[in-house]
Structures are given as structure tokens and as C-alpha cells.
């Protein structure tokens, strides 16, 4: 894991928007918002070396949710680490302390070279952009290139 200096401004802005939305009464998170929130929470726990506390007493469930989030964001290196930990004998033995599972995950993540925070930020930016996206010039050209009778239909 590279040295972490906090979330990028893009990631921070996207997470802040999700958190502000959660304060509004009766608001439900979209799938994308849940993915972003789960990935950010997990990654903060990983870089702050507080995975034991984050995984709590049900590490398999937390690992499964984080794995799904990183798979959805398309960060397979992290998703693979979480899947391996979740399916390991240690995670599936009730007597294994969550701290041991967290230590195994932490060691694997510490060796990771992927710019995970940047990838989370890219996902956040892409999701924001897709909501704001206007028709591209290519689409506009195809509309203007069509014969007038085709455009009126």
C-alpha cells in the first residue's frame, strides 16, 4: 500500500454528498452510493490500520460487502484479497479472532501497489459525470446529418 494522505478531493466531495444526502429524511441510497460508501469506509480502515475494529464480530459479512464494492468499482486486486480472506479457513472458523483475519488482510493490502484511492476517486467522478453528461458532439452530428424527414419522426 502506498503512503496515504487522505482521500482525494474528488472522493471526499463525492462521499460528502452521500453523507449529506443521508441526513435528509426518507432518502434511500442508490446502489452506486452504497458501493462508494462501503469502499471508502473499508479503505479508511485499511490505511489507518483499524481493520480489526472495522471487521467487528462478523468479519465474513463485512469482507463480503467490501469485496462486492471493490468488484463493482473494478478494483480486482482488492476484491481478490478480500475474497481470499473471506473464504479462508481462518474466516470460516468461529473460534478464530477477527484480529487474525484483519491481520492477514492488512498484510496483503500493505503489499498492494495499486493506487486504490485514485481508483475510488475515478469511480466517484465517473458516476457524477454520468449523471451530468450532455449529448456528445458526435451524437449531435449524427442528428444533423440525418435527412430532414428522418429528424421529424
- The secondary-structure class comes to mainly alpha
The counted number of beta strands is 0
What overall geometry do the principal axes of the alpha carbons give? globular
Number of helices: 9
Number of domains: 1
N-to-C SSE series?
Answer: HHHHHHHHH
End-to-end distance: 56 Å
The biggest beta sheet reads:
none
- Could you estimate the helical fraction of the residues in percent? 55-70%
Q: What value does the average pLDDT take?
A: 77
Please tell me how large the radius of gyration is.
20 Å
Question: Residue ranges: pLDDT <50 for 5 or more in a row?
Answer: 1-5
What's the short version?
The protein is 70% helix and 0% strand. The protein has 153 residues and is an all-alpha fold. The protein has one domain (9-151).
Secondary structure layout plus pairing:
Layout: H1 9-23, H2 31-47, H3 51-55, H4 59-73, H5 76-87, H6 98-110, H7 116-132, H8 137-145, H9 148-151
Please give a handful of descriptors for the protein shown.
mainly alpha, globular, 153 residues
Structural summary, described in words:
The protein has 153 residues and is mostly helical. It has one domain. Helix content is 70%, strand content 0%. It contains nine helices and no strands. α1 crosses α2 (31-47) and α2 runs antiparallel to α7 (116-132). The chain is globular, with a radius of gyration of 20 Å. The termini are far apart. Mean pLDDT is 77; it is low at 1-5.
Amino acid at each position: 500500500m502506498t503512503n496515504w494522505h487522505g482521500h482525494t478531493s474528488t472522493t471526499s466531495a463525492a462521499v460528502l454528498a452521500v453523507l449529506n444526502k443521508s441526513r435528509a429524511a426518507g432518502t434511500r441510497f442508490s446502489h452506486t452510493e452504497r458501493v462508494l460508501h462501503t469502499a471508502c469506509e473499508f479503505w479508511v480502515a485499511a490505511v489507518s490500520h483499524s481493520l480489526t475494529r472495522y471487521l467487528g464480530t462478523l468479519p465474513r459479512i463485512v469482507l463480503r460487502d467490501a469485496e462486492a464494492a471493490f468488484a463493482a468499482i473494478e478494483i480486482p486486486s482488492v476484491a481478490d484479497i478480500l475474497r481470499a480472506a473471506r473464504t479462508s479457513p481462518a474466516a470460516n472458523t468461529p473460534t478464530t479472532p477477527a484480529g487474525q483475519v484483519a491481520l492477514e488482510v492488512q498484510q496483503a493490502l500493505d503489499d498492494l501497489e495499486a493506487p486504490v484511492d485514485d481508483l475510488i476517486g475515478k469511480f466517484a467522478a465517473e458516476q457524477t459525470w454520468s449523471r451530468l453528461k450532455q449529448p456528445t458532439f458526435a451524437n449531435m452530428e449524427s442528428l444533423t446529418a440525418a435527412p430532414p424527414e428522418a429528424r421529424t419522426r
